Amino acid sequence: MYAPLSAQARGLVRLQTRVWADDYAALRKLCEQPRFLRLCRALSRSSERVRTVRALDATLGGSVRLEYDHTTARRAVRIYSAVAANHQILRNPQDKNENIVGGAAVCYLAIGRLAKDLYVSRGVWNLTCSKHALGRIIERDPRADLAAVLRDAHGHLMAIRDVLALDRLPFFLVPAAGGVFVCGARLFAPHEDDPPELRRDYRVSCYAFTWLSADMRWPEGDYPALCSSSCVDNRSWWLPLALRTVEITDDTITAIPTQAALMLA
After folding, report:
1. pTM to 2 decimals?
2. Cα–Cα nearest to 95, from 137, 132, 138, 134
3. At 253, which helix (H) or strand (E)?
4. What is the residue extent of each domain of the chain?
5. Gap between the Cα atoms of 211 and 233, Å rounded
6. Over pLDDT 70: what percentage of the chain?
7. CB-count burial class (<10 Å; 0-12, 13-18, 19+) for 51
């Protein structure tokens, strides 16, 4: 069992997740508005691109952060990150009988000519974080920018090359806020009865269960080894669903970047 959080930490995490919930609800509503959809389509037209980018950034506001931007004469793709409240129940990798309440997830918003007739896509990216992990950071630094911590940790996560190896580890460590998140990972697959067009729903999801500060003892981490150039490189699994497909053979599952994703390399 993890040590319980202080009342102050629980309260601050509760307030922050409410803000994230409101911000992401507003973003979800914005993505359904006809004017915003017109801007997303206009991004693919070179004659309107500069004006469209300015209008998009002004419309999206400060709740998202631009992570990737690639523009050519023929196509433009922009990927933003957002943080959303996420209250799903997480399974503790070190104690299978213990469940942990989720707190937040790093989400993506992809805009541009992603595929035929697809100009905008959003959803959970790769990292979900428990309330306990967020609270541990708050206990050390009540003024910590938790959204920045999550985005920074997500960036470290996406540097891991052998993504599918994570599913075989009992846990792994990801740098965050001067310490580490203790994480687990799972490869999720669509149901066997799902039609072939849903095969892209294979995804790797990572969960931060708790956070350990730099002055605490933790097991020797395997993060540098997972990022080593000697590892198998299957980082395409980190791409948002709209930017990859899945190729299935008898004994392997491979994530294949779309043409739009290749522009971001």
Report:
1. 0.87
2. 132
3. strand 253-257
4. 7-262
5. 27
6. 85
7. exposed
